[in-house]
Amino acid sequence: MGRLRGTLGSIAVLTYLSLVMAPVALALHRIISVTGFTPREWIQSLSENYISAGVLEFTIVQAACSTILTSMVALPVAWVLGRYRWPFEPWIRAVLTLPFVIPSIIAAMGVLTLVGVHGANIRANEATWWWTLIASHAWFNMALYIRFCEPLLSTMDPRLEEQLRLLPNGRSRLSRIRNLWAPLLMPSIAAAACMTFVFSFTSFALVRWITIRDDTLESMMAEVSSSAGISGYMETSSQIVMGASMIQFTILLVCLWLTSAIQRNRQARLRLSSPRRLDSPSWPAWLVLVPAMVFAISPLASVVVGSFRIRDPTIGNSAFRWGLDGWEAAIHGSFSFPPMSNAISNSLGYALVALLVALPLGYLLAATIHRLERTRPLLSRALDISTMLPFALSAAMVGLGVLIGVIRLNPQSLYQFWPLPSLAHVMLTTPFVVRIILPALRSYEKRYEENAMVLGMGAYARFLKIKLPLMRGPLVVSSVFVIAMSLGEFGASFIIARNSDWVTMPLLIDAWRAKPMKDPLSAPASNSIATVLMLITMGLFLLAERFRSDRQGGMF
Amino acid sequence: MATRNKHKTLTKPNLILIATLLVTAPLSGCVMLDEASSEDPMDGELVIVTYDVLALSEDMISGFEESSGLNVTMLKLDDAGSILDYLIQNRGNTNVDLAIGLDNTYLQTAIEFDLLEELDLDKSGMSAPGSFPGRSSMDPLEPYDGPLAVPYDMGYICLNYDTEAVDGENLSVPTSLEDLTEPEWRGKVALPSPVSSSPGRGFMLASLDYFDWQSDEGLQFSNWWSDMVANDVVITSGWTEAYETHYTGGYGEWTEGYIGDAHITVSYCHSPGVESYYNGNWTKSATLDIPKTSLFQVEYASAVSGGNALYAKKFIEYLISPEVNSMMPYENLMYSVLDGLDLPEEDGYRSNSQIPAAPASIPMEDIDDHMEAWLDQWNSAVTSGG
User: Fold this and answer.
1) Which of B93, B235, B260 sits opposite A412 (nearest CB)?
2) Would you call A416 and B234 a contact, using CB atoms and an 8 Å cutoff?
3) Which of A195, A263, B126, B264 is the least buried, fewest Cβ under 10 Å from its Cβ?
4) Contact A395, A489 (CB under 8 A)
5) CB contact under 8 A, A50 and B254
6) Contact: B88, A498; criterion CB under 8 Å
7) Which residues from chain A sit within 8 angstroms of residue B92, using beta carbons?
8) What mean pLDDT is reported for chain A?
9) Does A124 contact B259 at a Cβ distance shorter than 8 Å?
10) How many Cβ atoms are within 10 Å of B15's Cβ, its own excluded?
11) Which of A239-243, A287-291, B16-20, B210-214 is predicted least confidently?
């Protein structure tokens, strides 16, 4: 059994290296063969090209502003959620954390419907679209603060604060914040802020649809991807991609390292107890929670409503009627777009392939890391770090890895290979599977297996009858995570699949909305596909919530 | 994004034809290209790479499938630049048979990269400039008359302006490109980027000719673009964004995301005619006919190297047939390339479409030799401006 474990572990590591790391390495090799190894020129090219000039500054500033606004919006929400006993609390928490699991392309469609020319009509103004983007990032990342801070707030013993009130340093509200809450909450806030910065920094769908003329490094890389990695043709594209990738990788790596260090520090400090909350919410708490619920639901509701709202040019350009025309157009397709069923079957197919590869691969990697922790700690640590490295790769970088590193090896054959987009999804999801499974393996009680061994159970029987049922929760959460992430994946698919017939639901949503000319069905059709994707994602999310151990300050 | 549309309406295989081919092909050694132009239906799949060319409508493709017996699959990309990118990336492969949408600013690069296949097609119906007064200066074979590409539509790329905003009182009608660098035009001009847009590329080429690039190695050209950036010109990634999002004179005000901050943009000299045709003989958009600021654009259909040239040829013959090509003004909002055909007169289509008096002229060879350097020069100018 030990030898079999070793063999499986070796196979998993080799598969991981060839499926997840090799495409990126091959892409780097190809681009460097075009540009030469000139890191300084790569970085310089960003400011020297019209396409990329100012992009880095915009990316950093919008990510910083998004982080600040998200903190301002989400902290009060996390506070009231953690400090009071709410009616229908699981549902409230589900609604407030829903935006984070909804694919960003759906968020983009929802926000666009709210602020576009046929909604509040504030998108066209440069001053308002900037804040629309920042508010959208706050909407998307609000759940991070809730996930990171709320468990701490809800498990804090209220007597601590009561005792502090009696002391000179705790008499005023400000002094209690300074001396109790700030030191306790700061690590959680910092960790949530780091992750918010990362997600805003790599934002693609929201930037593509909400801003006008501005790009993040991520969206800019996606735009120039089709001409990158080709010798003798538009070589500046390759330089830009290398410069942007280097900067993005470094910044993401630093942020993720910071998050990890802060979380370790936070976990060392915390002593969680069973929830002890104030009994019922005060009216200011309602004033925080109700607008937050409306904020969380509005873009999603607008997607559904927008799918039935048809502009009627025969009456007037601002006249609308209600109907199913958008749904019909999306379901039947048109000459320019395939029917929705094509996109759904492709998306489900890719999600299934991603699941079949990422789940066993992630499990075996986690098991190998766990096994080596006892026997070869250094090797275990190295493998652990290597499985975390892809976190510093954005979706666009993964997409470029597959396009330039894999597809260009043999476009003719590989463009015919239907499951290929799943490779990007495997690259993006496997590290998450490892992160979900590894803590579960670490907390797995060996005693059960030892008892079973004493009772004469074989290795396979122990695995099937004891380990697998005990690991059911993390396995279901991982599976749901892989499927949901694959279904909603947009950045990498945009790069890999937009020049092919591998249409997925997010790509079809984007394509309908991007249709030029004044087709009154383009917005409702894109909204109807977004509605279907949203319902599937919500179903998966609710399923995962049933199996997620409560009070985990995780990312999902 | 690209989508493939598979037309499943295959005509039933003609067994007699197949049997005949099976018997005669070995005897003749091979089926020559010329023989394929016969009226007999074929059986197979034609893969077309294109952008969202309006002319390639469902009816048009169905008509071809019915008459040829071929099954058409279309790979739709973003624009002409994406077609070139795709062909370069897939060099030597046989996935695609036909490319539709490369224009005379991209064609030479495709030829240089050896991406296209020679075809022997009769283009005599296109080569009579001056066959009627309206398009006396438009010869679709003038930019390129070789065997690697066949014109299917054409038009002049030029500046358009909003006559309501540029009314001579609040804003005066510019008479030179230099006027656009004046303070009154600050932030009021939207131009598509030549890096990613073919109308943008066409206008950049026109501006090179306007500033006589050969006399001063493009110094005035660079200075003008820098001055435009300093004057807050809106540079967009594509024509759609410039025309729909920023231009106040067109239909963009009815589309989502409309900003309406620019009264001048780059489009076609006949775009005001199109606006008028679709608005019941009314438009507020007009052609800004400044000498050497417009460029003649021809769009081409080409067989792709490694693809099935026989099928490609069959489709191109259909595309340039009088019954299909005469519909270009309606279906593709461009001029037909056939002799004796002009824009329709109804609803002000023709009367609002102007032929520029003195268009710019840049030979294809120069485009091929200098395009990369010009794009670099443009890039330097716009990144140093402002």
Assistant:
1) B93
2) no
3) A263
4) yes
5) no
6) no
7) 412
8) 87
9) yes
10) 8
11) B16-20
CB contact under 8 A, A501 and B258: no
Distance of CA B63 to the CA centre of its chain: 23
Q: Does B257 touch chain A (CB under 8 A)?
A: yes
Would you kindly state where each structural domain of chain A is located, as residue ranges? 1-36+333-443+471-500, 38-284
User: In A, which residues are within 8 Å of B52 by CB distance?
Assistant: 336, 515-516
**Per-residue confidence (pLDDT) for residue B73, from 0 to 100:** 85
Using the beta-carbon criterion (under 8 Å), do A335 and B58 form an inter-chain contact?
yes
Short-list A556, A429, A489, A490, CA closest to A98? A556
Say what the pLDDT of residue A316 is.
63
| Contact present, A285 and A80 (Cβ < 8 Å) | yes
pLDDT at B12: 36
| Confidence at residue B94, expressed as pLDDT on a 0 to 100 scale | 65
Q: Do B383 and A503 touch (CB under 8 A)?
A: no
> Under a CB-based contact definition with an 8 Å cutoff, are residues B353 and B270 in contact?
yes
Interface test with B, best of A109, A210, A226, A240 (most B CBs within 10 A): A226
Domains of chain B are 4-154+298-345 (3.40.190.10), 156-295+347-384 (3.40.190.10)
Check if the beta carbon of residue A521 is closer than 8 Å to that of residue A326: yes
pLDDT of A166 strictly over 80: yes
Chunked in runs of 10, what are the mean pLDDT values of chain B (386 residues)?
41 37 35 40 80 76 91 82 85 82 92 92 73 63 92 95 91 95 95 91 96 90 96 90 91 78 95 92 94 95 93 95 90 88 90 92 88 92 80
Q: In B, which residues are within 8 Å of A212 by CB distance?
A: 245, 257, 259
Touching check for B127 and chain A: CB below 8 Å? no
A31, A117, A510: best to mutate for the B interface, most B CBs within 10 A: A117
CA distance, residue B2 to nearest chain A CA (Å): 5
Structure tokens of B192? 């598509």
The answer, yes or no, to whether residue A495 has pLDDT greater than 50, is: yes
| CB-CB contact of B83 with B96 (8 Å) | no
Pick the CATH number of A38-284 from 3.40.47.10, 1.10.3720.10, 3.30.70.1170, 3.40.50.150: 1.10.3720.10
pLDDT-derived band at A400, boundaries 50, 70, 90: very high
Residue A213, pLDDT > 80, answer: no
The Cα of A113 is separated from the nearest Cα of chain B by a number of Å equal to 9
To the nearest whole percent, how much of chain A has pLDDT over 70? 93
**CB-based contact B88 A233, cutoff 8 Å:** yes
- pTM reported for the whole predicted model: 0.84
List, for residues A499-522, the tens digit of each pLDDT value.
677 899 999 999 898 876 667 888
Task: Give the whole-angstrom CA distance, residue A406 versus residue A413.
Answer: 11
- Residue A96 neighbours by CB under 8 Å, 6+ apart: A77, A81, A142, A143, A146, A292, A293, A296
On whether the CB atoms of residues B193 and B236 are closer than 8 A, the answer is yes
**Residue the block writes with tokens 């909604």:** A119
Residues of A with Cβ-Cβ distance to B235 under 8 angstroms:
50
